Amino acid sequence: MAKTYDVVVIGGGPAGYVAAIRCAQLGLEVACVEKWINFKGEPALGGTCLNVGCIPSKTLLETSEHYHQAKEGFGNHGISVDKVAIDVSKMQARKDEIIGQLTGGIAQLFKANKVTWLQGSGKLLADHQVEVTKHDGSVETVEADNIILACGSLPIDIAAAPKDDKLIVDSTGGLNFTEVPKRLGVIGAGVIGLELGSVWKRLGSEVTILEAVEDFLAAADQQIAKDALRQFKKQGLDIRLGARVTRTEKSATEVTVHFQDKDGEHQIVVDKLLVCVGRRPNTDGVAGPEADLVLNERGFIHVDDSCETNIPGVWAIGDCVRGPMLAHKGSEEGVFVAEMIAGKHGHMNYDSIPWVIYTDPEIAWVGKTEQQLKQEGVPYKVGTFPFAANGRAKAMDGAAGLVKIIGHAETDRLLGAHICGPMASELVQELVLAMEFSASVEDIMLTIHGHPTLAEAIHEAALSVHGRAIHKVN
C-alpha cells in the first residue's frame, strides 16, 4: 500500500523546499521529491538556484569584483598592489564550498521540520498519486491529499549553437570554467549573460555579447537600461544588439560564430561560447497522461490565481508556472500555497516583486516601467537623482548610475522604482516595502534618510518627482 502524506512536493528548489518547510510548520506531514545530483555526485537540495544559479554566480561575481578592484580600482584610493593574480581553482573551490554549506543547510532544515526527502524523480499520476523513481532505478508510489509541483526550469538550447559542454556551454558550464578564456562569446544579453560575461571580463577575458533583439534589457525601464549599457561598454564589454546567431563552427580549440545584424553577415572567433538565451519550464515528464494535467503551448503548467492547477488539490509554483522566473517569486508562491492548503489566507502580490541584475553597476527595479505606463495610458510623474551627486557613492567610487521614481500624476501613489548603481539590490528593498504598503511618493519624501548613505539618492529622486530635490537642479 502506498505511503500517504498530507502534502507531497515535487522539486526541492527555492519554490519546492520553501513550500515543504512551510507546510510542515503548519502541522502537515510532508514529503519532498528531489533528484539533483551535485558536483560531488551526491544527492542535493536547492535546485538550480543554489547549485548552478543564483548562489554560485553571486560567489563568482564577488570574487571577480575583488580581483578587479585590486587590479584597477585600489589605485584611486592611494593603495598600491603589485602582481595581482587569480587562482581560478581556488575561486571555484570556494564557490563549491558555499554551495555545499547552503544545500546541506536545507537538508538540516528538512530534518528539523520533519520533512521526508524522497531522493529521485517524481511524476504525477492519477488520483493524487506520485511515482518516485529513485537513483538506483527502483520505483515507489506515494499519495497525498495535496501535491505541489515545483519542477523548475532548464536553459533553452538553440540549433545554431549546439551545446557540447566543452567549447559551447550553457550557464552551468559558464560557472565552472577551470581557466579564464582568452576570448569568450556570449549569446544573450539578459541577466545570466550579463552577469557571467561580467565575471570573466573582470578576470581578463575579451567578452563579446550577441543579443538578437534591438532593445537592451527590454524588460527594464529604458532610461535605466540605456544608462547601464553605457557603463558596461565603458568597462569593455562588447555588446552587439540586433545580432542574430545563424550558425557555429568548431575546431579542436575554438568556435567561429556567424551572426547577422542590420549591416549584414559577420563572424567572431572565440575560445568558449556561452549560450544563455533564456530558460524554459522543466515540465517534460512531470505528469503521466492519466493525470490529465493541463499545460500551455510553451510547457508552463496552467494555474489559477491561487496557483491551483486544473486538478483540485494539485498546485504548481515557481519557474514552471506563469510569471517571472525568479527564485524569490517561487519561494513566496511556496509559502502562499502552503497557507492555502492549511486553510489560512495566503498572500502573494505579483505587483511588488523586485528584479535584480548583479552586475557592476547593479540594476534593480520594482513596479511599472515608464514605457509600460505610457502604453497603458496611466498619468505619471518622474523624478531622478544621479549617484554622481551622492556623497557616499563618491566615497565608494560608485558614482555611476541613478535612481528613478515614478508616481501617479493624480494620486501620487508609487507606481515604479528603478535603480542603476551601487548596491541597487539592497536599496530597492525600501521601495518594494513602500509599494507593498501602497505608499505615495510623498511618503518617501517625508521619510528621513540617514546621511551620508546611498539611500539618500532614493529620497532625492522622490523629492525630484515634485520638483523639490535639494542636491540637484530641478
From TrEMBL:
Other observations noted: The active site is a redox-active disulfide bond.
Entry EC no(s): 1.8.1.4
Residue positions of the active site: H451
Any Pfam family: Pyr_redox_2
Record carries keyword NAD: yes
Residues the record lists as binding FAD: K58, G122, D319, M325, L326, A327, H328
Compartment(s): Cytoplasm
Entry GO MF terms: dihydrolipoyl dehydrogenase (NADH) activity; flavin adenine dinucleotide binding
Domain named Pyridine nucleotide-disulphide oxidoreductase dimerisation: residues: 353-462
Cofactor note: Binds 1 FAD per subunit.
Organism: Plasticicumulans acidivorans
Protein name, as recorded: Dihydrolipoyl dehydrogenase
GO cellular component: cytoplasm
Keywords in alphabetical order: Cytoplasm, Disulfide bond, FAD, Flavoprotein, NAD, Nucleotide-binding, Oxidoreductase, Redox-active center
Cysteine disulfide partners in this protein: C49-C54
Catalytic activity of the protein: N(6)-[(R)-dihydrolipoyl]-L-lysyl-[protein] + NAD(+) = N(6)-[(R)-lipoyl]-L-lysyl-[protein] + NADH + H(+)
Residues covered by the FAD/NAD(P)-binding domain: 5-334
Protein residues bound to NAD(+): G188, A189, G190, V191, I192, G193, L194, E195, E211, G278
Similarity remark: Belongs to the class-I pyridine nucleotide-disulfide oxidoreductase family.
Cofactor(s) it depends on: FAD
Matching SUPFAM superfamilies: FAD/NAD(P)-binding domain, FAD/NAD-linked reductases, dimerisation (C-terminal) domain
GO biological process, one term: 2-oxoglutarate metabolic process
Native organism taxonomy: Bacteria, Pseudomonadati, Pseudomonadota, Gammaproteobacteria, Candidatus Competibacteraceae
